[in-house]
Batch of 2 targets.
Target 1
Amino acid sequence: MKIIVTGGAGFIGSALVRHLVWVRGDEVLTIDKLTYAGNRDNLAAVAECANHRLDVVDVCDAERLRSLFFDFGPDAVMHLAAESHVDRSIDGPADFIRTNILGTCALLETVKAYNAERAADKACRFLHVSTDEVYGTLGAEGAFTEASPYRPNSPYSASKAASDHLVRAWRATYGLPVMLTNCSNNYGPYQFPEKLIPVIILAALRGAPVPLYGDGQQVRDWLYVDDHVAGLVAVLENGALGRTYNIGGGCEKTNLEVVTEVLTAVAEQTGADRDEMLKLIEFVKDRPGHDRRYAIDGTRIRRELGWRPQTSFADGIGQTVAWYLDNKEWWASAAPEESDHGGP
Ligand SMILES: NC(=O)c1ccc[n+]([C@@H]2O[C@H](COP(=O)([O-])OP(=O)(O)OC[C@H]3O[C@@H](n4cnc5c(N)ncnc54)[C@H](O)[C@@H]3O)[C@@H](O)[C@H]2O)c1
C-alpha cells in the first residue's frame, strides 16, 4: 500500500513506520513537523530504504498537504501527529488546540478533496489514532468501551476528543472512509524522556530523584508500543469503516507499581542495588485534574479483528530498559537533566 503516516518521527509513529517499511514493504511518506518530540534519528533505520521518505511539514499547512497527497497518491493515511504530553497541555494549551484540532481538520479536508478526484473504490482511508483519555476517569470498577461517554479532563484529552468528533462528523457528513482507535498508555524504545517510564529510567541511571505524582495510586493500562502498531495495522487492514476500536494492554498497574518494576529492571540490568534505587522515589504534588484510573475493554478488537497484546509487561520493560542503556547518545541531548513531572 501507499501510506502517509503523520507524526511518523515521534515515538509511536516511528515504530509504525519501521513496521510498514520493513515488515510489510509498504511505500510510506512520513509527514512530521519535527517539534521537540519529533526526531529524524527515530527513522534512521529506514533512512536508506527506497520505500520511505520524510517530509518536514506542519499538518496545519493545508496547501502543502494538498500537493503532497496529489503527488504521492496514498491509499491510506494514518494520523498520529499531535501534541501528546498532558503536563505540557496544562502549562500551555494553545499548541494542543492548534495541532490536534485544526491540524486534524486540515487533514480531513485534504483527504476529502483528494478522494473527490478518485474512484470510490480507490478512496483514501483515514485512520485516526487517539487515546483512552477522551473517556475521562474511572472508579475502582469497570472499563472503557467504545460506547463510553466522552468526558475529557485535561487540555490534551479535550483536544484529542475534539479531533475524534471531527473525524466522526466527516464520516457522517461527507462519507469519508474513516476508522478510529483509542489506545491506552504506550511504552517502549524511542519514547521522549518526558513520559513516565523513560523519566524513571533516566533518573535511576543518573541517581536522581524519581518523581511520582500524589500518592502514586493512579491506575493506567500499559501496552508495549509494537503491540499498538500491530493493532493499528489490524484496524487498517480489516477494520469496518466508521468504526471505533479501543486498544488496551489488559495490564492495569498503579504508577507506584510501574516505578517499582522499572527501577527493579534497571537495578537488574546495571548490577545496582535495588533497595538503594527504590529510595530514589520522591512523591511530588499531584497534577491538577489528574485522572484516577483508566482501563480498556478490548472485546471488540479481539473478537472482530483477532488482535491481542503479545508482550508481557516484564518483557516489554526489560526490552525498554535495555534499549535506553544501549542508546545513551539518543537521549543525552534530548532529555532534561531532571524532571519534576511524575506521571504518564
Ligand atoms: N503515547 C501514548 O501513550 C499514546 C496513547 C494513545 C494514543 N496516543 C496518540 O498517538 C499519537 C502519537 O503519540 P506519541 O506518543 O508517539 O507522540 P510523540 O509526541 O512522541 O510524537 C508526536 C509527533 O507528532 C509530530 N507533530 C507535532 N505537531 C505536529 C504538527 N503540527 N505537524 C506535523 N507533525 C507534528 C511531532 O514532531 C512528533 O514527531 C498521538 O496522536 C497521541 O495522541 C499516544
Target 2
Amino acid sequence: MELGDTYRGKTVLITGDTGFKGSWLAIWLTELGAKVIGFALPPAGPRDNFVICEVARSITHVDGDVRDYDALTTVLGEHQPDIVFHLAAQALVLDSYKDPRGTFATNVMGVVNLLEAVRYARSVRAVVVVTSDKCYENQGLDRGYRESDPLGGRDPYSASKGAAEIAASSMRRSFFTEPGDAAIATARAGNVIGGGDWAANRIVPDCIRALASLEPIVVRNPSAIRPWQHVMDALNGYLVLGTKLLADGHRYAEAWNFGPAPGEVVPVSGLVEQMIAAWGSGTYRVEADAGAPAEARILHLDIAKAREQLAWSPKLSLAQAIAATVQGYRAERDDAAAIYAHRAMQISAFRELP
Ligand SMILES: NC(=O)c1ccc[n+]([C@@H]2O[C@H](COP(=O)([O-])OP(=O)(O)OC[C@H]3O[C@@H](n4cnc5c(N)ncnc54)[C@H](O)[C@@H]3O)[C@@H](O)[C@H]2O)c1
C-alpha cells in the first residue's frame, strides 16, 4: 500500500522533530499530507536540518521535554494524534559518558512517560518507539543481531536503549493488551546518514566538516564495522511499520530491526573512502585515541523479519546512500526553501524506487 493512503489527513506526533531523523520524518509526513505535530527540545544549533529547512513553517512544533510527563499529556490532549513516532532521545554515545543520568532519564523515562500518557490519550492508535541497533548486548558476533537476541549495552547510551526496549515491552504487555488499545512497537535501526546531520563526533558529519574545510578527515576507529544506511531507508521502515500498526494493530506490536542489506556493511575506513570519492577530493588519516571509551568492533542487524513480515527492505545501496548524502549536504548552500525542496525531492525520488 502507498504510504500516502495511510498518512494523508492523519495527525501524527513526532517526538524529537528538531533532531536529524525527526526533521526528515516531519518533511516526509508533511509531503504525504499528514498534519504533523512536533514535540522536542529546541534545535541544538543553527545548522540543524530542522532549522535550515525551516521545518517549523510546515508543522506545529511544541517545545517540550520528554522527562516532563504533564507536558506529554498536554500535547497529546491538545492535538489528539492518531499515531506517535517517538524519536526524542539523548542520541550520542560520547555524551552518555558525560551525562549518564540525563541519558537514562531521557531515553528510558521518556519512553515510560510517553506510553503512560498514551494510555489515557484515546486518540492514539499506534506508537513506534525508536531505539537503536545498540540495544543488543554486543557479543562480538559476526552475524547480524536478531530481534530475539539478548538486550544489553556497555556504555550508558546503549544500555539506555536496551532498557528503553524492556520498558516499552513491559508497558505494552501490562497496559496495551485489549483490542482497542494502542499498538506499541519498537524499531531498531542502524547508523543513519544523510544531509542535515551536524552532530558532533559522528563520522559522516566529521567527514563533511573536514572535506569542506580542505582538512584531512581524522578517523579513530578505522576497522569498526557499523550498519550505515540512508536516513530515508530507516524512516521508510518506521513509516511502513506505522502503516501495519494502524491497519492490523497488535499483530505487529513488537520489536523490528531496520538496517542495510548484509552485503552493504563496511568498516569506517571503507565508508570514509567512499565519502571522499563521492565528494570528489579529500584525504584521511588514522589517529588512535588511547583515552577513548571502548567501542564494539562489529555491529550489524539481521533484517529478515522486517523483510518477510513487513515487506520492507532497504532501497539504497551504500554507494547510493553516500551519493544522496553528499548531494544533501551540498544542497545546504541554498536558502531554506530550496533546501526543503531538495529534501522533498530526494524523498519523492526514493518513493519511486522499487
Ligand atoms: N542517528 C543515528 O545514526 C541513530 C542510530 C540509531 C538510533 N538512533 C535513534 O534515533 C532517534 C533520533 O536520532 P537522531 O539522530 O535524530 O538524534 P538527534 O540528536 O539529531 O535528535 C534528538 C532529538 O531528541 C530531542 N530530545 C533530546 N532530549 C530530549 C528531551 N529530554 N525531551 C525532548 N526532546 C529531547 C532533541 O531535541 C532532538 O529533537 C534517537 O532515539 C536515537 O537514539 C539514531
